[in-house]
Write a structure and sequence with these properties.
The protein is built from 7 helices and 3 strands, in the order αβααββαααα. The chain is elongated, with a radius of gyration of 19 Å.
Length: 171
């Protein structure tokens, strides 16, 4: 019998496969779950989800499950999907790079008039303050040690972003 090979997947596909380990979900449910579970450090857009799902199904990593309300299609991870996800988990590639449009904007914010820079910083600070409150609540409630470590990272990352925003000169 031939050995089962894992099909290589990108990080977005792996994120979806990881969520589907918990059970069948529709595209909309995956978008919500991704935002809740890892939105503070890995963004997955609605368009990415709906682009990846048919590709994963066509590669045999997912299969269609029940049809949900309003004709939403649920997806179920297959054995091949589990193998590909496990291979992605163990790949151990190079260190991540930070990809933050906000950090890039702040890097170049000296080119803005002081009023516009202050508005950018204030709006960003407000958003990160709200994210910090949500991240702290998630971290406090997490019991799984791996998810707890990631939740604690989200808190630390959010605090670091707030420190960065506080370091931007206002004048």
């Amino acid at each position: 019998m031939p050995s089962a090979r894992a099909i290589p997947v990108n990080s977005t596909a792996a994120a979806l496969l990881g969520l589907l380990h918990e059970g069948p979900m529709s595209g909309g449910q995956l978008v919500v779950a991704a935002g809740e579970r890892f939105g503070s450090f890995f963004a997955v857009t609605r368009s990415q989800v709906y682009r990846e799902l048919p590709a994963l199904a066509s590669a045999g990593l997912l299969k269609e499950g029940r049809q949900g309300p309003r004709s939403s299609q649920q997806y179920v991870i297959t054995a091949a999907g589990r193998r590909s996800f496990a291979a992605w988990l163990t790949w151990g590639g190079p260190a991540d790079s930070v990809r933050s449009p906000l950090v890039l904007r702040l890097l170049h914010s000296g080119a803005l008039p002081a009023e516009q820079r202050a508005a950018l910083v204030a709006a960003s600070r407000e958003a990160y303050a709200a994210r910090l409150a949500r991240s702290r609540a998630v971290a406090r409630g997490e019991r799984d040690p791996y998810r707890k470590a990631v939740a604690d990272f989200a808190v630390a990352h959010t605090r670091a972003m707030l420190r960065l925003l506080d370091a931007i000169p206002q004048g």
